[in-house]
Amino acid sequence: MLATFGLQRLESGLENDTLTASDVEEFLEQAEPTDMRTLARNGMPDALDRLHRRIADESRYLPSDAEWATDEFRATAVIAPPKHPDSPRQPHRHSRANRQFAPRQHANRV
């Protein structure tokens, strides 16, 4: 009887760490090679935690609209009037979205 209570307590602790099908699907959609390596070495719970941490870290580096409006260089490049109003050529304006060096939002499925 003591063994039954001990096993029941062990099982109740394991039920909290269960993964759902949606967790696995989310992982497989957004996983990168480093996430797959973590899955192979440490198991699904650690790999899913690492994926969530990576996504949270990447989202910190994406510029928000408020950041972009307060950046002095970008604001003067877009808001500044042309130096020669009579010139036929349009002044060059910097693109607001330069995604070349920004982190990817989803896995690259090449």
Main attributes of the structure:
single chain, elongated, mainly alpha
Structure characterization notes:
By secondary structure, the chain is mostly helical. It has a domain at 22-78. Helices cover 60% and strands 0% of the residues. It has six helices and no strands. The protein starts with a helix and ends in a 31-residue tail after the last helix.
Q: Quick one: overall form?
A: elongated
Count all strands and give the number.
0
Uncertain stretches of 5 or more adjacent residues: none
Which range best describes the helical content: under 10%, 10-25%, 25-40%, 40-55%, 55-70% or over 70%? 55-70%
Order of H and E elements: HHHHHH
**Approximately what portion of the residues adopt beta-strand conformation?**
under 5%
The main pleated sheet reads as: none
Going by helix content, strand content and strand pairing, the class is: mainly alpha
Q: CA-to-CA gap between the ends?
A: 56 Å
